[in-house]
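Session log. Operator J.P. requested a structure for one protein chain; no other inputs attached. Running the standard single-chain path with C-alpha cell output.
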Amino acid sequence: MSQPPEDGGIATSGSGLFLSFEGIDGSGKSTQARLLADALRQEGHAVVLTREPGGSPGAEEIRALVLQGDPDRWSAETEILLFTAARRDHLERTIRPALNRGAVVICDRFADSTRMYQGLSRGDLREVVDQLHDLMIGVEPDVTLLIDMDPEIGLARAKSRRGIEERFEDFGADLQRKMRAGFLDLARDDPSRVRVIDGAREPEIVASDVLAVARSALRKRTGARSVEK
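Structure written below.
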C-alpha cells in the first residue's frame, strides 16, 4: 500500500533542510526518523517524513518490486536502475517541492544505501552507482545520520518483525557486516555530512543525540540565510 509522506507545521521562507537516516537493517533508523520528525514539529518546523525506496506513488510501486520476493530476484545492476528510477520520481514529486517551500525533509534512506547494498556489498559497482547518481539525481542530503549497530543484533531485530519486505535481510549476516563497514567508511570519508550515532543505547538517548545534530544543522542553515540577506 502506498504511504505518502507526512507533512505538518509552519514552513519558513527559503530553502529547506534535507536530512537522511542510514544504517544496516534493524538499526532503529526508521524509529529515530519518526521521533525526530515529531520533535521538530513540536518546535514549529514544517516537516516532511518520507522513505526510500518509496515516498511518491511511482516510487512506492517500485518498492514492492525490490523489497519483496526471492533474494536473487534481481541482479545488482538491475537493482541500481530500479532504485535510481524510484529516487528520481521521489526527488521530483516529494523532496524538491518540500525543500523549495522551506520544509525539513527527513528521509529514511537515500543514495548512500544504494552505494552500500548494490555498489559495494553485492559487487564492485560503486563507480556505476555514483555515475548514475550524478547523472540522474545530483543531490546529497545536508546531513546524514548514520545509526550504527552491531550487525548480528540488527539482523535479529529486523527478522523479528516478520514482515513481507525482507528480501535484503534474507542475504544474511555477511551482507550486514559489509554494509556496516561500508557505512563507517562513508562517515570517515565525508565527516561534515555523515554523523555517526551509536544505536546500541536506549531509543530516547539515541533520539536526544539525533535531535542535537538536527538542531545544529538548522542553526547553520538559519545563519546562512541571514548572511545571504
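Operator note: Helices lie at 29-42, 57-67, 76-100, 111-121, 126-136, 151-160, 173-189, 203-228.
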